[in-house]
Each structure stands twice: as C-alpha cells, then as structure tokens.
Amino acid sequence: MIASIQKINTAIQHLLYPHFCSGCGVDFISTKEFLCAKCCSSLPVTQFSHIPFNPIEKIFIGRVPVHAAGSIYYFTKSSLLQHLLVQLKYNNNKEAGFFLGRQLGILLKATDRFNSIDCIVPLPLHPKKQYQRGYNQVDLIGDGMAAVWPKKLLKEAVSRKIYTKTQTQESRISRWENMEGAFEVREPNSLRDKHVLLIDDVITTGASLEACGTAILAVPGTRLSIATVAYTI
Ligand SMILES: [Zn+2]
C-alpha cells in the first residue's frame, strides 16, 4: 500500500516536473541528474590521468614544468561530448559546465597525484571576448569542480591581456609566439607558495595553458598542474 502511494506520488512529481536527459532527451524520473546513465557511460573516459608521462604531460615536456596533468574525456567530433562543450561555450549552458566540472573534480579528487593542489585557476578569456560571450565557460567548469572538491577557486587571479583571434590554422610555433606574455598574474599573493591547478575546457596544442602556466610559475614558490575536460588527439 505504502509502496503504491509512493509510486503514485513519484508519477505525479514526474508529470508536474518532467526532467529530460541533456544528451538523448529521454524523460527520466530523477530530478537531479544532468545526463541519463546510458549517456553518462557513453562519454569516452581517457583513464590515464593517474599515470605519469601521460599524453597531456607529454605536451608540456620541455615547455613548462608541470607537476601533474590530465584530461577526463577524449574529444571526438559529432559526439555527445562535443555537443556539451558547444552548449557550454556558446549557449551559456551552466548545467553543462557544472556537470563536466563535477566529473573532472571527482576524477582528480580520486587521483593521488593531484592531492596537494591548493587552488584552481580557470584559464581566463580576454576581457573583450568575455564581454562578447557574457561569461567565461571555464569558470563554469571551475564551479562544478569546487562543488565536489574542496579547493579554493580563484577566477580573478590571472588575466589575459593580449587579444588573440582563433588560432586553428596556425602552426604550434606561431601560436606560441602569439601567446607569449599574453597572461598576467593579478593576485600574486593568492598564488604565492601554492600548488596551482590551471584548468581549461579542451586541450589541443596547449599553447594558451603553457603561456598562462609560465606566468603563474613566475610567482615565487608556485607549482603548476594542469587539467582539462577534453583532450583532442
Ligand atoms: Zn541520455
């Protein structure tokens, strides 16, 4: 009898407050989850962030000293992950950012190599770009991470002072030439003697992360780690 009443109650709740999976659109009962279990398990997890010299760390060898680096998902075109990243970057989908950040936070929290992180710094956008977009999508990822991993989130510690256009057609060397000196630490005291985790949505060449990481490491006593939601092979 009680079970039946609970079932009816759940059905009424479902009718009043329907909830759809943001991946496949299936209507499911849980009002908390962003993706259904099937979509969640379909995201391609890299499973290498706990391993030294993983593909993300190799990107930075000889460029900037990194304590640890990792990514949670492989980026593939026309995938659910690409859909979520587009939602996050261009449609101000805070839920997508929070979900992806939460997933990344849960992963790193369980990975010993990131235990000594003191604070999280989202890769900043240039103020002009942030004004045009209305927000920095990486801040939203940081919000999700900080919700599951008790680390200080410093959204204002670093700023981007050089406006760069989309660099997809440029070589790695010219990207670096464009990025060198592009970032400035605005709050050195908040980073001094800290192990800083610099985060971004997607890593390709790592030029922006390298330039921003170099600026962070100029603050005395800092150590640098890097994490992104997606890794483009
Ligand atoms: Zn789904």
* Named CATH architecture of the largest domain: 3-Layer(aba) Sandwich
- Helix fraction bin: 40-55%
Count the DSSP helices: 10
Structural class: alpha/beta
Bound molecules: zinc ion
- Indicate the low-confidence ranges by residue numbers: none
| Inertia-based shape | elongated
Radius of gyration: 19 Å
Total DSSP E strands: 7
Number of domains: 2
Largest sheet: 5 strands, parallel
Mean pLDDT: 90
| Distance from first to last alpha carbon | 55 Å
Order of helices and strands: HHHEHHEHHEEHEHEHE
Strand-residue proportion:
15-25%
CATH topology term of the largest domain: Rossmann fold
CATH hierarchy class name of the largest domain: Alpha Beta
Biggest sheet: strands side by side, in what order?
1-7-6-2-3
Brief description of this entry?
With 233 residues, the chain is α/β, with parallel strands linked by helices. The protein has helices at 2-16, 37-42, 55-60, 80-90, 94-109, 127-133, 137-148, 172-179, 188-191, 207-217, and strands spanning 69-74, 119-122, 152-153, 158-160, 183-185, 195-203, 223-231.
Describe the protein's architecture and organization.
The protein folds into two domains: 1-42, no CATH class; 43-231, Rossmann fold (3-Layer(aba) Sandwich). The protein is elongated and about 65 Å long. The chain contains ten helices and seven strands. It has helices at 2-16, 37-42, 55-60, 80-90, 94-109, 127-133, 137-148, 172-179, 188-191, 207-217, and strands at residues 69-74, 119-122, 152-153, 158-160, 183-185, 195-203, 223-231. α4 (80-90) crosses α5 and α8 (172-179) packs parallel to α10 (207-217). It has a five-stranded parallel beta sheet with strand order 1-7-6-2-3. It is α/β, with parallel strands linked by helices and 233 residues long. The termini are far apart. It binds zinc ion. Zinc ion is lined by residues 21, 23-24, 26, 35-36, 38-39. The site of zinc ion (ZN) has 8 residues, from α2.
